[in-house]
Specification:
The chain has 422 residues and is mostly helical. Helix 1 runs antiparallel to helix 6, helix 3 runs antiparallel to helix 4 and helix 5 packs antiparallel against helix 12.
């Protein structure tokens, strides 16, 4: 039997790739418009100031994070105990219902702040289950040697959809406000059908099943004891938590750069465009050496570009900076995702992916809250400068405190384990 030379030669992986594209397209469109609609409702219907409306954007991130924080251990356990296709399909179904409700309430002009916060919390609940299940599927349907390329290609799906979702959603929203949410619902239905067409995926278990609570604790303890995993996961958590400028993009779009919802869609799409370009390059020319140091340099560069974005008052320049932010972030994400998946045994991948997903969500949603609070105190520009500088400081501290990250030379699983243990 001829071994595949590319993950795209594997039918299950192609369906997985399309499912990921559809789901991310839908959810990115929803999240961007949720933020814009909340900011618009707060400013226009409730008469809030820019500072107070910015603070509510931060609270919207918190509303999405709370279910993630509470349910992440359960979601990771579900991905390790049940068919991962069913877990992902269930979560996409919940998100599809959220999209339908957004379409209906937008069409009926019935949106208010409590409804938007409730739908944001429901979206957060769906995402907490889909992310660990989807992340843990890829290593089960491609050979280990192809996993870094599979992760790069999966990132292309993610980032391309992250470009198209906000851009298409913003353009449609400017004309028919309810329609992009209806489109999201249809794409989530398609993602559900595609992921269910993949062969059954259930984690391998070499020993006896432990009780659910014991399994949850075991996954947390494993990450805590493996300093390499802990360093990878927490680097992303604290750096992006501080440098998360995306929560304030509605402020820049409406009141600083004056480009409206169409401009907001392009601004949200710009980082994903940079990331997708790098992911495409990495799918053909994956990094093979000094991967740990390259990850650290990429995070520091992300912080520097964040500071540059804060001071830009030219829309095209701001877009260019956002593209650069996405490009360097993709380098960091690609390396970290590959290292975490290759370092983790299959029977723990769901729980470790859930913990990693919690860190990513914490950095995004709590980062939005941090940005909103900082903007209320420092203004939007000051908040973004503070976050970018914080990301650079975090990188320096992690490079010193987790030397295992600097020592990671390659993606070879055995070499990786040997290098980080020395």
């Amino acid at each position: 039997m001829i071994e595949p030379a590319s993950p795209l030669q594997i039918g299950d992986y192609r369906r997985y790739w399309l499912a990921r594209f559809f789901a991310v397209f839908a959810t990115m469109s929803m999240v961007v418009l949720l933020g814009y609609q909340l900011y618009e409702v707060a400013r226009a219907d409730y008469g809030m100031s820019v500072a107070k409306a910015s603070f509510y954007l931060g609270l919207l991130g918190l509303a999405q994070f709370i279910p993630l924080f509470v349910l992440t251990p359960v979601a990771g356990l579900a991905a390790d105990r049940f068919d991962r296709r069913h877990v992902a399909a269930f979560a996409n179904g919940i998100d599809g219902l959220v999209a339908v409700l957004l379409a209906v309430t937008t069409w009926a002009d019935a949106l208010n702040i409590p409804i938007l916060f409730a739908l944001a919390a429901a979206h957060g609940t769906a995402r907490v289950f889909v992310n660990p299940a989807m992340s843990a599927i890829a290593p089960n349907i491609v050979p280990p040697v192809l996993l870094p390329r599979a992760i790069a290609l999966s990132s292309i799906a993610w980032q391309t959809a992250s470009v198209a979702g906000p851009a298409v959603g913003g353009l449609i929203f400017a004309r028919y406000e309810w329609l992009p949410h209806a489109l999201s619902a249809a794409m989530l239905l398609g993602a559900t059908a595609l992921i269910l067409s993949v062969r059954p995926i259930k984690a391998k278990h070499d020993g006896p099943h432990l009780k659910p609570l014991r399994q949850i604790i075991e996954g947390m303890v494993y990450v805590w004891r493996e300093r390499f995993l802990l360093g990878c996961i927490t680097l992303d958590l604290f750096a992006v938590l501080l440098a998360g400028a995306t929560a304030l993009l509605p402020v820049f779009a409406r009141d600083i750069l004056f480009v409206g919802p169409e401009g907001l869609g392009l601004m949200r799409a710009a980082p994903a465009l940079g990331a997708a370009s790098v992911a495409l390059w990495l799918s053909f020319r994956p990094l093979v050496s000094e991967v740990g140091m390259k990850m650290l340099w990429a995070v520091a560069a992300f912080g520097a570009f964040t500071i540059a974005f804060a001071f830009s008052r030219n829309f095209l320049l701001s877009l260019a900076i956002l593209v650069a932010m996405g490009a360097v972030d993709m380098v960091s994400v690609f390396i970290r995702s590959s290292l975490v998946q290759l370092f983790t045994p299959d029977d723990r991948r769901g729980r470790v992916s859930a913990i990693s997903g919690l860190a990513i969500s914490a950095s995004n949603e709590l980062g939005e809250m941090q940005s909103g609070l900082a903007a209320a105190l420092l203004g939007a520009t000051g908040a973004v400068v503070f976050g970018g500088a914080g990301a650079i400081v975090v990188t320096l501290v992690w490079a010193w405190y987790f030397p295992e990250l600097r020592r990671a030379r390659s993606f070879e699983p055995q070499e990786l384990k040997r290098e980080v243990s020395t």
